[in-house]
Amino acid sequence: MEHITSRTNPLIAHVRKLVSSAAYRREQGAFVCDSPKLLPEALLYGGAVRSVICTDGTALPPLPEGVRTVSVPPDLMRAISPAKTPQGVLCVCAIPERTLPRVLTGQRYLVLDGLQDPGNVGTILRTADAFGADGVFLLPGCAGLWHPKTVRATMGAAFRVPAWACTAAECAELFRRSGLPLYGAAARADAKDVRDADLSRFAAAIGNEGNGLSESVLAMCGETLRIPIRAECESLNAAVAAAVILWEAARKTDRRE
Fold first, then answer.
1. What pLDDT does 206 receive?
2. How far apart are CA 171 and CA 82, in angstroms?
C-alpha cells in the first residue's frame, strides 16, 4: 500500500476534481464513492474499482489485482472527501457504459424530470432497487447519477439499477417502441387515484421538487396519477412519491401472484 501525505499529489488532485466537476467525471469516465459500505457493494456488483484511498490503519476488504491502494492521514482524507464527516474509505470507480436499449422488456420504470437534489435522485435509485424497478431515466436538469452525493444516497443501488441519462424525446420514442404506458405523478383534479391504476407494466414520471412535471413531459403522459393525501398538504417529496407508486405496483403484483 502506498502512503500519501501531500495535497498536491496527482492522485489527490484527481480525486478532488472528480468530486467537484461533472465535466471532469465525464472526461475521465470515473466517479468517487465515499463510504466504506460502497466499496464492497462496488466489488460485489461489478463496479470497476480503479483505486482505493483510506485513512491510516483502516482495514480493507480483499481487492482485485491491479487496484491501487493508498493510505492517507485523517487531515488529507478530510480535504478530499465530499462528506462533512469522512468515514475513512473512498474509492474511484469507472463509470459503466450504458446505452439506451432498443426495447424495454421490464415491468416498472421511473422517469425523473428535472430533479436537482442529488439526495433525492439517489434515494429514488435506492427505492427503485428495493421495489424491483427495472430502470430509471434521468432527463435534462436532473442531478448527475455519478455526483458523490447521489452515489452515496443510493447505498449501492447505483451498481444494481440500470439508469440512463436521455432527452424526453428519446424517452417517449423508447416507450412507444416498447408498448410501455407512461403515467405522470401530478396533483391534478383529473388525475387517477394511484390505487385504481393498472400498474402491471408502466413507467411513472416524477417531477421537480418545487414545480412538479414540466409541460413537455406531461404532454408525453397517457394519464396522470395522484397519491391521495390530506387536503391540508400540498404535495409529497419526489422520492416519497416514487416510493408510494412503486410500493403500490409491488403490492398489486404480489396480490395477483
1. 96
2. 32
